[in-house]
Amino acid sequence: MEYLFKILRYDPLEDKHPYFQDFFYATKEKKSLLEALMEIRNEQDSTLAFRYSCREAICGSCAMVLNGNFDLACRIELQALESTLIVIEPLPNLEIQKDLVVDMEPFWEALSRIKPYLFPDKKIQKEGHRIEERKMEKIFQYINCIMCGCCYSACPVASRDERYLGPAALAKLYRFVKDPRDKRPFSNLSGVNTEGGVWGCDTIFKCNEVCPKEVRPADGIEALRRKLVVEKVKRIFRLKR
Amino acid sequence: MISQDILVVGGGLAGLAAALSCDPNLKVAVVSKVHPLRSHSVAAQGGINAALGNNPDGRDDSWERHAFDTIKGSDYLADQDVAEVMCQKAVSTIYELEYLGVPFSRFPGGVIAQRPFGGAGFPRTCYAADRTGLVILHTLFEQSIKKQVKFYNEWLVTKLVVNDGKCLGVVVYDLATGQIMPVRARAVIFATGGYGRVYSRTTNAYINHGSGTGIAYKAGVPLRDMEFVQFHPTSLLGKNILITEGARGEGGYLVNNKGKRFMADYAPSAMELAPRDIVARAIQTEVDKGNGFDNQYVHLDLRHVGEEKIKKRLPGIREICINFAGIDPVDTPIPIQPAQHYSMGGIDVNEKCASQVEGFFAAGECACVGVHGANRLGGNSLLDTVVFGKVSGEEASIYAKGSEGTDSTEKILLEEALEVKTRIEEWEKRNSGEKVHRLLDRLKVVMSEKVGIFRKKKDLAEALEKISELKEDYKRIYLYGKCLRYSQELVNLLEFDSMLDLAEVITLGALNREETRGSHYRLDFKERNDKDWLKHTLVTWKEGKPHISYAGVNISKYEPEARKY
């Protein structure tokens, strides 16, 4: 089978604008899109830049846009695609560093702002927590996140408002808030009780749609909103009393 | 010039554990060729061992039993004192990880769940379903955000700079800018992982070229026990993605084309949960005898384990099977074959993770601290990374506080960086030459065919010849892409040098070791020979070639005995 790859190329130091370059690629064997990209790079243009590592959809390196869909290049089988024309673009709304390599710094920066770590009970430092598994089950969905950046890149809010933390970071925050072991003070959530936080979400659910690991980040954002509202109501009642 | 008290190279589990345990008053940074969360540790699945005794079948477990299993599993090549240190620290290490936020799976009563693993007398492998590496790596990364660890991501270390037996720093290739730069450091810790991609079939990530180990070797640090290469019994046919030992721990069967659970013929009491070297050989033997499917693979059958347990305990395996093989293990057996998985050998370091070079430390898979001997038990590598990662950070801190720099350091570092730059310019200047990925493909074939699960003198000698041919061809290498920013070609070119060295060291050790021990199986010397070979192999780069020597094994408690399962 022969495929036509149209790959977005851009070197900010050399090119005025991004452009599509055509590559023909033929194979008889089953190949992932990542394998095809690597062969194209090896045989046709060794300057073609893209990230990759595990090839098993767990490291989150090779997120890109493939025929308009956000996905990990390693988990897409070439033969399973309906078209022999394959258009590959870098994750949008992030600066292109070279070709398919984008600057993920805003994504990591957002993550670091939510204090993405457990606030444990200091008394049990030596023996760890005892906790029933069913109490942990609510967070399982969120610990599947591999930080590939698909949701952040696809989010219409993150693309127009740079203050917005984005789906992955907020879902990560909910992963900790919902963790029965977490003792973070409620005041810790005030940082996301803003337009740059949970109230920025447009509830378009693009993040749920594009997530390759079925994390459904918007579930976490909505749950955080509910928690903030409930706490607020509780406080008002407490004040009245 | 960037200057650090401690420079950690590698952002996987060992590297992050090291960085987090460094003295906070020191200036510490992590250099990694990928973002830390892209490290191969993230792909670890089945679990991490510690004698917690939480499983109802594991009440009598103890760290001593864990140490004994580790030593027996190593075919008695482990240094017993160091194995004991690791197993003793295991219990507090797990509680520490849990305290930091690792969402371990639980047993009723809320204690950390433990499953049986190969070669272990008790079920002692703690896990988070089958994504244990993912959750531990993410947890340690989260801790490094909390502790504001400094990262230099997408920097490839190309050289370890040593002068007069003392480590001065490294030379790096910054992928984003394409620049070659020296980095000064009082102490350097390598946590650079494995070299799986030297083989065609490997469970390892594409990035696992093992250049850290090769760079240390070229800087004069001996490599230890490199001939011991672990082949994991169960990798998914074709892509060789790891299918965790936990699948057998949860009750999975290995079945040949006759429908037989063939492990009965190889390890009648441990069956599927014999150590990896034994199971991998059994599978390969069945395939070679014609008892496999398509002469390539056998089945890992999970159907009787049941949908509920598969979805709860092995969701990642199910996802991998669906994504990459188009099958659901709930109703179809998984086609599996052995594949290279892990290096027992590595940079020769002592129990403090210190090498012979002053100020140079190593931890994790790139290092050989001596706990895995000739065969590593499943669940012991995550433990190794966290325990010895931490040790390396603590020890490097002690060293860095007591060390003094010299005036000539920067000059030497600049000269070494210039040497790397010149080398790259030469590759660029040529008009044509060899393509690095073709050389790599050739090397992989040699290693897989001649230095695989079953070895013999003729094959190993031929492999050495082919490797030296490849070394000649490497001298005619050409850099086709002229842009050095984000040049994966340049990464591959620089790292291939190390891959050739590692291949040579592995093969040389395997050729010399005329016995069978653990993962090293010689068809022409099928027995273990403690009289002549109960010793560590050391290979040192001297005057432009490898020199082989041997060192004693620490046998403090357990006399070597026959290894039966």
Structure notes:
The complex is a heterodimer of chains A (241) and B (565). Chain A has helices at 33-43, 105-113, 133-143, 150-154, 156-160, 167-177, 206-210, 217-240; strands at 2-9, 19-26, 63-66, 69-72, 85-89, 96-98, 101-102. Chain A has 241 residues and is α+β, with helices and mostly antiparallel strands. Chain A folds into 2 domains: 2-102, Ubiquitin-like (UB roll); 105-240, Alpha-helical ferredoxin (Fumarate Reductase Iron-sulfur Protein, Chain B, domain 2), CATH 1.10.1060. In chain A, the strands form 2 sheets. A 5-stranded mixed beta sheet of chain A has the order 2-1-5-3-4, with helices on one face. Chain A has a two-stranded antiparallel ribbon with strand order 6-7. Chain B is α/β, with parallel strands linked by helices. Among the domains of chain B are: 234-337, Succinate dehydrogenase/fumarate reductase flavoprotein, catalytic domain (Flavocytochrome C3, Chain A, domain 1, Alpha-Beta Complex); 409-524, Up-down Bundle (Methane Monooxygenase Hydroxylase, Chain G, domain 1), CATH 1.20.58. Chain B has helices at 13-21, 63-73, 80-100, 132-146, 211-218, 246-249, 276-288, 307-313, 315-325, 380-402, 409-429, 436-450, 457-474, 488-512, 530-533, and strands at 2-9, 28-32, 48-49, 114-115, 125-126, 150-153, 155-163, 166-174, 179-190, 223-224, 229-236, 253-255, 298-301, 334-343, 346-348, 360-362, 367-368, 454-455, 521-522, 535-542, 545-552. In chain B, strand 1 (2-9), helix 1 and strand 2 (28-32) form a beta-alpha-beta unit. In chain B, helix 12 runs antiparallel to helix 13 (457-474), helix 12 runs parallel beside helix 14 (488-512) and helix 13 runs antiparallel to helix 14. The mean pLDDT of chain B is 97. At the A-B interface, helix 1, helix 2 and helix 3 of A face helix 3, helix 4 and helix 9 of B.
